[in-house]
Amino acid sequence: MKFGYARVSKEQQSLDIQIQKLKEAGCDEIFSEKASGAKDDREKLQELLNKLRPGDIVCVVRLDRLGRRMIKLASLINELHEKDVQFISLENNIDTTTPMGMLLFNICAAFSQMERELIKERVSAGVAAARAKGRKGGRPKSLDKKGLNKLMKLRNSGEFSVKQICEIMNITKSVYYRAINAKKEENN
């Protein structure tokens, strides 16, 4: 039997294109999920692996849909070989039943891991550069010192409910309570 596996990392991403390509490749059953490729405990992937029998084929659109780390990918491909299961990556033109396909798999997996490491390095360099310029990262605070003082005056006046203060200040209740707790800690 030919099984397809489709994965996207984020909930808002669509699986449609991958599923369509897997159907066109002749997959009898497709397992799909929305989970990070870096996660090892992917439910649908595990379900697929448990269903495999000798002679089956696992098909993915791209190698990185199966996983991000070279060690994990190599381990997974070896597990498939031990079960006498073929592996095909459509866009990478990898078919691990051939020596050339196995070589190509190892090369592509190494590049996939290298790309991930390069992304990490670029992100770290960007964060370091931003910090060097005085940026801390994250969202700007909802309340500056002036806003916090105004909130405390409204609260201490006793004339307004929490809901009314939030409407006046145009903040959420969670921002209100975080500000109150921060002020209490500051006074202690």
From TrEMBL:
Biological process annotations from GO: DNA integration
CDD domains reported for this sequence: SR_ResInv
Gene3D superfamilies: Resolvase, N-terminal catalytic domain (3.40.50.1390)
Top-rank lineage group of the source organism: Bacteria
Keywords: DNA integration, DNA invertase, DNA recombination, DNA-binding
InterPro entries xrefs: Resolv_N, Resolvase-like_N_sf, Resolvase_HTH_dom, SSR_resolvase
PROSITE patterns: RECOMBINASES_3
The keyword Zinc belongs to this UniProt entry's keyword annotation: no
UniProt keyword DNA-binding present: yes
Start and end residues of each Resolvase/invertase-type recombinase catalytic domain: 1-134
MF terms (GO), sorted A to Z: DNA binding; DNA strand exchange activity
Pfam families, alphabetized: HTH_7, Resolvase
Family in the record: Belongs to the site-specific recombinase resolvase family.
Official protein name in the record: Recombinase family protein
Species assigned in the record: Francisella noatunensis
